[in-house]
Each structure stands twice: as structure tokens, then as C-alpha cells.
């Protein structure tokens, strides 16, 4: 089992890799049985994804970004056992000229030194307005 400090490092590394937009590398940080849940009720975005489903979601959304990636910047983290809570912000300019800036709370759970689950809480109204309105 990793220490809480090591798990915070893994969560921060996930944000760094996520910010590259490299879907294969993002998925490589996840446990083979990992799940990724996105808050809200936005069709095509919210819900629970396995690795393959997350890959499809990310592949679609990264194509909307001007530089192919959403930059995720962790601003605070706290860990207990195999769980890490992270506050973060994001930034991306979309090809349609809109700017996506959101605030997040991520809850990571680790198993075998990899991410076993992620829960992503965000301002879903802002996400809907930028991607769907």
C-alpha cells in the first residue's frame, strides 16, 4: 500500500498527464478495473466509465480543444489511507473560440499503486454552456 504522500504525488501526476491530452498515457495511469465517474446529468459527459469508455470520452472531447488538451491544475490536496481529495482548476480554449475554465473536486482511490477510481465533481452548468449550448 502506498503512503498518503505517495498517493498525492500520483494524483498530481495524473493531472500533469491529463493536461497533455495523450489519452493512452492517461489511461495507463489507471488500474485495469478502474472506474471514472463524472458528476451531473449531461448526456455524453456525466456518468460512470470504465477505462475503454473513458478513452472514448476523452478522445472525443480533446478534439474540441485548440491545443488538444484540457490543462488541469491542482490547487490543494489531502489524503487519508488509499484516498486523495484534490481541488483543481482547468483551462482550455476551444476551437470554436469559447474558453473552458472550471473548478473541480476529485476523489481518487488507489489500489496497487494505480488509480482505481476517480470521482469528478465540477460546475456542470458551465460545462454544458461551453460544450453544448
Q: So what's the overall shape?
A: globular
The number of helical runs is 4
Termini separation comes to 44 Å
Q: Would you tell me the overall average pLDDT?
A: 96
Q: Helix proportion of residues, in percent?
A: 25-40%
- What structural category arises from helix and sheet content? alpha+beta
Strand tally is 7
Beta content:
35-45%
Give the helices and strands as they follow along the chain: HHEEHEEEEEH
Give the biggest beta sheet: 7 strands, mixed
Give a topology summary.
Elements: H1 4-18, H2 23-28, E1 30-38, E2 47-50, H3 51-62, E3 71-80, E4 83-93, E5 99-100, E6 103-111, E7 114-122, H4 124-131
Parallel strand pairs: 1-7
Antiparallel strand pairs: 1-2, 3-4, 4-5, 4-6, 6-7
Report on this structure.
- The protein has 133 residues and is of the alpha+beta class.
- Helix content is 31%, strand content 41%.
- The protein is built from four helices and seven strands, in the order ααββαβββββα.
- It has helices at residues 4-18, 23-28, 51-62, 124-131; strands spanning 30-38, 47-50, 71-80, 83-93, 99-100, 103-111, 114-122.
- Strands 1, 2, 3, 4, 5, 6 and 7 form a seven-stranded mixed sheet that branches.
- The radius of gyration is 14 Å and the shape is globular.
Amino acid at each position: 500500500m502506498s503512503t498518503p504522500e505517495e498517493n498525492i504525488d500520483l494524483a498530481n501526476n495524473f493531472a500533469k498527464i491529463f493536461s497533455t491530452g495523450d489519452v493512452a498515457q492517461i489511461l495507463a495511469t489507471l488500474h485495469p478495473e478502474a472506474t471514472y465517474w463524472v458528476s451531473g446529468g449531461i448526456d455524453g459527459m456525466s456518468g460512470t466509465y470504465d477505462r475503454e469508455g473513458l478513452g472514448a470520452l476523452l478522445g472525443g472531447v480533446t478534439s474540441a480543444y485548440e491545443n488538444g488538451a484540457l490543462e488541469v491544475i491542482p490547487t490543494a490536496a489531502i489524503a487519508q489511507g488509499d484516498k486523495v481529495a484534490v481541488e483543481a482548476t482547468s483551462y482550455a480554449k476551444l476551437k470554436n473560440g469559447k474558453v473552458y475554465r472550471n473548478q473541480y473536486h476529485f476523489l481518487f482511490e488507489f489500489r496497487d499503486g494505480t488509480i482505481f477510481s476517480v470521482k469528478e465533481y465540477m460546475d456542470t452548468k458551465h460545462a454544458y454552456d461551453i460544450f453544448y449550448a
